[in-house]
């Protein structure tokens, strides 16, 4: 009997070994019901095929591009690609995600997932077109920025509609915080995914396809699409996001600033009004450098601002990208100059740098300088003073090219602090070995979600900010209190897993954007597209299965346990200095209670944080439970 014919998927997984140049394919559908696609299927492939003794730098490490099962259809906001690997930060699960048009183009070319193994002896790129794949030389592209790489490939291949995912100079030079970038302004950041791609000498993947993705139930699917569109259009938050993130959420007077900022490397979590006004750069209520809004594929929101600086020192700086990133990086470095901040952010994309890692490592260095542990001689003659735009931009270049002190900082803040010592470890903001840009003390839901993230210190998993825009709508909780935070983060973690396996953007779903689509909408869209008649309970079970695959991977490969789910020491020992939440910190006794409850909800052991046999078997992961048991890491 042949495999069942289902809708929604392109139907094939592409496997590419860069070392022996072997290219093969396998059917996607055999994994369909258990994992659906995206991050969940990536997690299964990693855990099932990668030996725990394999290091992130080994040729055997896998770099997997997993397109969501609804990407390439008309499902609103379905455009995302999950990229998973073994992380160079901690040898645990590495995961990142981007939107744009690349994922749909990959599916139109015939592939739902691309699994990269091996190391090429020289720079190459992968050309994927209409069911075929070819490894080609990237000698002429090596050393170029991401923008130059995309333009070069479109010219070389003779098609302006080719979609490209590439690394920049940072990934080539082994900066641990390197991204994989695609347009418009979309970075798969975190976990060192760009580092792994550079380690394999893979400069880019270029994709072009003329296929189509068919729904199993076209009439039912279009009805579900129409209902989803109406919900997004009716959302009171969607209108703001269409204008831009400043207007939607970060006007200077917005209360979100009061618990959003990790100021001067976490010395504080409050930024004064004057600095907010300077940074937002408003003229008549609109950022003066924003020119227009852009959109990913199939998105009814269009939240990406395209910006250009027309005059002054940074004249000519242009590009697409979220202003929110500028705000996060800028508070970390106390940079309140709008144009310099925008340039800092847009250069991250061109250089292939993870802005979280760059700003966190730089902020740590600035604090070391402030405390006398680094000198101008250590920093190539630079004086590292908070808010100094020229010093910040110069340090960014040094880091991207691993020049001088940039080489010292290039492996992340944990490693930098280990090498320097002298107490600098205390203000190295990192979770599970990965640089963490986020605040933890005022917004308990945000901080807890960052801390328990399986990839370490990233907020795009379970972090919740406010009940109006994140978390379940029927749960009473407050962002600055501990009560019911585990329940909110547990729910948010599951819905984010659903969004990643289907390919939805968080800004149309359950997380801090339009807050429009819910699990029932995902069920309708996935069921009618794929032909799998799922219930809400079944879809949530698939999500929990994906989350437990990540937990098992981290337990087996990185040895993580309960001790890895606490925030950085600074946030547990130092209080917020100023603002409405002055005096707040993360209290260990209350944090312990949150962890106890969170582990209970997930079916994990309270004492260790490890998976349990009962929990794994309920999810159909009994074989993985046996593997955990054989090494003594199952309860």
What would you say this structure looks like, in words?
The chain has 635 residues and is α+β, with helices and mostly antiparallel strands. The chain folds into 3 domains: 197 residues, Aldehyde Ferredoxin Oxidoreductase,  A, domain 1 (4-Layer Sandwich); 178 residues, Aldehyde Ferredoxin Oxidoreductase Protein, subunit A, domain 2, CATH 1.10.569; 187 residues, Orthogonal Bundle (Aldehyde Ferredoxin Oxidoreductase Protein, subunit A, domain 3). Helix content is 39%, strand content 13%. The longest helix is centred in the C-terminal third of the chain and has 23 residues. It starts with 11 loop residues before the first strand and ends in a 5-residue tail after the last helix. The mean pLDDT is 94.
Mean pLDDT: 94
Distance between the termini: 39 Å
Structural class: alpha+beta
Bulk shape: globular
CATH superfamily of the largest domain: Aldehyde ferredoxin oxidoreductase, N-terminal domain
| Number of extended strands | 19
The number of helices is 24
Task: Give the low-pLDDT segments.
Answer: none
Q: Could you say how many structural domains there are in total?
A: 3
* CATH T-level topology of the largest domain: Aldehyde Ferredoxin Oxidoreductase,  A, domain 1
The CATH class of the largest domain is Alpha Beta
Strand % is 5-15%
Strand order of the largest sheet: 2-1-6-3-4-5
Q: Give the C-alpha Rg.
A: 23 Å
Helix content: 25-40%
Q: Please name the CATH architecture of the largest domain.
A: 4-Layer Sandwich
For the sheet with most strands, the description reads: 6 strands, mixed
């Amino acid at each position: 009997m042949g495999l069942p014919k289902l809708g929604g998927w392109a139907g094939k997984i592409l496997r590419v070994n860069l070392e022996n140049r072997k290219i093969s394919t396998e059917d996607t559908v055999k994994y369909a019901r258990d994992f659906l696609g995206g991050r969940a299927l990536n997690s299964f492939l990693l855990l099932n095929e990668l030996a725990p003794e394999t290091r992130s730098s080994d040729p055997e490490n896998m770099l997997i591009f997993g397109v969501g099962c609804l990407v390439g259809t008309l499902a609103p906001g379905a455009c995302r690609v999950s990229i998973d690997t073994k992380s160079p930060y901690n040898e645990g699960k590495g995961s990142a995600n981007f939107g744009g048009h690349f994922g749909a183009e990959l599916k139109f070319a015939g592939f739902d997932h691309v699994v990269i193994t091996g190391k090429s002896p020289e720079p190459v790129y992968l050309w994927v077109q209409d069911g075929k794949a070819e490894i080609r030389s990237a000698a002429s592209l090596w050393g170029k920025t991401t923008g130059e790489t995309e333009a070069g490939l479109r010219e070389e291949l003779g098609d302006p509609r080719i979609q490209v995912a590439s690394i920049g100079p940072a990934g080539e030079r082994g900066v641990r915080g390197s991204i994989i970038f695609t347009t418009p302004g979309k970075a798969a950041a975190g976990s060192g995914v760009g580092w792994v791609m550079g380690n394999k000498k893979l400069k880019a993947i270029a994709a072009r396809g003329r296929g189509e993705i068919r729904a199993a139930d076209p009439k039912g699917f279009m009805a579900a699409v129409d209902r989803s569109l109406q919900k997004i259009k009716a959302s009171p938050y969607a209108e703001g996001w269409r204008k831009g993130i400043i207007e939607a959420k970060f006007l200077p007077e917005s209360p979100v600033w009061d618990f959003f900022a990790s100021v001067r490397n976490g010395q504080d979590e409050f930024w004064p009004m004057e600095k907010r006004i300077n940074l937002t750069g408003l003229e008549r209520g609109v950022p003066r450098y924003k020119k227009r809004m852009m959109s990913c594929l199939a998105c009814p929101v269009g939240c990406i601002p395209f910006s250009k600086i027309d005059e002054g020192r940074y004249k000519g700086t242009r590009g697409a990208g979220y202003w929110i990133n500028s705000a996060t990086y800028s508070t970390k470095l106390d940079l309140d100059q709008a144009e310099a901040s925008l340039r800092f952010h847009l250069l991250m994309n061109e250089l292939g740098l993870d802005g979280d890692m760059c700003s966190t490592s730089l902020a740590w260095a600035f604090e070391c300088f402030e405390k006398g542990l680094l000198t101008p001689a250590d920093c190539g003659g630079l004086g590292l003073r908070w808010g100094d735009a020229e010093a910040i931009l110069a340090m960014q270049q040094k880091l991207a090219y691993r020049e001088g002190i940039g080489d010292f900082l290039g492996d992340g803040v944990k490693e930098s602090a280990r090498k320097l010592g002298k107490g600098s470890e205390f203000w190295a903001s990192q979770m599970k070995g990965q640089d963490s840009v986020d605040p933890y003390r005022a917004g308990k839901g945000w901080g807890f979600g960052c801390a328990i993230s399986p990839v370490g210190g990233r907020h795009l998993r379970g972090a919740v900010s406010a009940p109006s825009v994140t978390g379940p709508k029927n749960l009473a909780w407050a962002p600055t209190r501990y009560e019911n935070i585990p329940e909110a983060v547990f729910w948010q973690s599951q819905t984010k897993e659903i969004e990643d396996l289907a390919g939805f953007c968080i800004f149309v779903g359950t997380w801090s954007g339009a807050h429009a689509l819910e699990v029932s909408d995902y069920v309708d869209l996935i069921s009618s597209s794929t032909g799998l008649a799922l219930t809400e309970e079944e879809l949530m079970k698939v999500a929990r299965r994906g989350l437990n695959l990540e937990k098992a991977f981290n337990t087996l490969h990185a040895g993580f346990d309960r001790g890895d789910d606490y925030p950085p020491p600074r946030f547990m020992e130092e209080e917020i200095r100023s603002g409405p939440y002055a005096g707040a910190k993360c209290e260990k006794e209350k944090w312990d209670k949150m962890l106890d409850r969170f582990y209970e909800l997930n079916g994990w052991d309270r004492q260790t944080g490890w998976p349990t046999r009962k929990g794994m078997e309920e999810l159909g992961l009994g074989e993985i439970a046996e593997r955990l048991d054989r090494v003594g890491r199952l309860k």
